[in-house]
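B., you asked whether I could sanity-check this one before it goes into the benchmark set. Here's the sequence:
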Amino acid sequence: MEKTYDVCVIGAGIIGLSCAYYLAKKGKTVAVLEAGGFAHGASGSCDDMILFQSKKPGINLELAFESLELYRSLRDELDSDLGFENYGGMVLIENRGELQIMEQFVTQQRNYGLDVEILDKKEMRRRQPLLSERYIASTYSPMDSQADPFEVMHAFSRHAGRLGVKILYRSPVTAVEQKGQGDYLIHYGIGSSLRALQVVNAAGAWAGHIALMVDENVPIKPKRGQILITEKIPKLGETNLWSARYLVTKLSSDYVIESTEEERQLGLAFALTRSAGSSYLIGSTREFVGYDKGTTMEGIRAIIRQACSTVPILKDVHFIRAIAGLRPATPDGKMILGEHSSRPGFFTAAGHEGDGISLAPVTGKMLAALVCGDSLNAGLKELSPDRFNVRNMEAV
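And here's what the prediction gave me:
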């Protein structure tokens, strides 16, 4: 007879492990099923950003504030520094058009409570003297931070295990059957199964496939991101860096940036963050290429050209490794968090795209509260999976 758990979490990336940990803290018995090994998916091939400046005022920014506070408290709670750093961040501005859009955006973010400002060229170069001369200004927020996804996942899994969570790696889910109210039979691996009162779909870029097993719609598409890692080098300036080019196109549909056909196909956007090991992570691409997780020479060369044109001293630095992961992207750019109303007991926590590291703690905490029926922020309704029901989409 199959063993029964209160909750089965499908996916052991940073989101799934956070969900499992917070569910166990609330006294739930939890099993986690993961198709691959530890850090097999996007969580093992991503950057480490807890980035505020990319978020519009609203639920994502609000949750990011809470997630940052959770990271700070989790260092003691999980007995690990989590690779947490608070270097702050700057978004680099190339021209007057970008500056105008970013000034408006910064005003909106400041009104919402984000500590962010516009720096003139002199102050920008004081903080980042190695930048290309073409940048005319930047934003700056001291709140932008980072955490090591491997350290966070190890800490979540270690403490979840102490709370009785069973994590099964290399156990791909093959079918999910609802046998009755509060009774799910989950088949995994070769001929194995378990029962659960509730199911959490935290399968990242594969969450749509899991949802189809219970005839639910989770419209997540994989978006490949290629990233380069440098050798260990001295610190480049005071902060981490991002380019405004990609952000302004999301903020203003009328704004057109000058780019090559290759850059458009790759979805190239500059990001540079310093890791705890004194290397830099430099990226990245945003490519819809299905489930292909391979790196490409085109992507690697484009990232290197962009990096060296932004911080010219990088021409003298060795790039020692290239990685690629699949960001789980939703049509509206917001994660999916909540219970499927037409499938009681089936929850989805996925679709974070590039915010999986940033929002992992708050996602796990909110998901556990939803599973337990706690009263929560009404704003979470806009993250509900029900927004993608055919009926709801036709009404929009």
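One thing to flag: Residues 339 and 372 are 11 Å apart (CA to CA). Otherwise nothing jumped out at me.
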